[in-house]
Amino acid sequence: MQSLENHFLIAMPSMQDPFFKRAVAYICEHNEDGAMGLVINQPINITVGDLLDKIEIDNDKSTQAASVAVFAGGPVKTDRGFVLHSPKAGYSASQELSSEIMITTSKDVLASLTTAQAPEQFIITLGYAGWEQGQLEQELLENSWLIIKADPDIIFNTPIEQRWEKAVATLGFDISQLSSEAGHA
């Protein structure tokens, strides 16, 4: 089994699950036990400043960071927050996922988001997408997802409403021409 860590899963146009319709999920972990990812293009009606208020972390509402949207990262543990961020020294609880992306659930990173000590780029998700052993592989066989190497530019710099299209465009073909039927020779 090849690990899909640091890859995007792009929902096929035929995906009808309301949570994953036109979703782009960043895979943080994938091994023989299953997979864990964060959907990076499903904003919810809460800003970073609002979220920090709810969890009683002081924040500067005048910063651009305070007005950034928070995302629904997946249907699992939606009360738990995850921060994907650009690398920054000093965050001992952050785990490096690639040379350009780190992840944390630590409050020290959350407390810094509206300060000068914040990582240069970040997104927050509530919840995550999880797949049990073999489940993701089965969904791939069923043509539910397309896979590409993760691009930090899509996570951090692409407007939310364009992330699915930009991820699809990196494939180099017209996705509307794809069949949802799996072919097996």
From TrEMBL:
Domain of life: Bacteria
Family in the record: Belongs to the UPF0301 (AlgH) family.
UniProt lineage: Bacteria, Pseudomonadati, Pseudomonadota, Gammaproteobacteria, Alteromonadales
Gene3D superfamilies listed in its UniProt record: VC0467-like (3.40.1740.10)
Organism, scientific name: Pseudoalteromonas arctica
GO cellular component: a single term: cytosol
Protein name: UPF0301 protein HHO47_09160
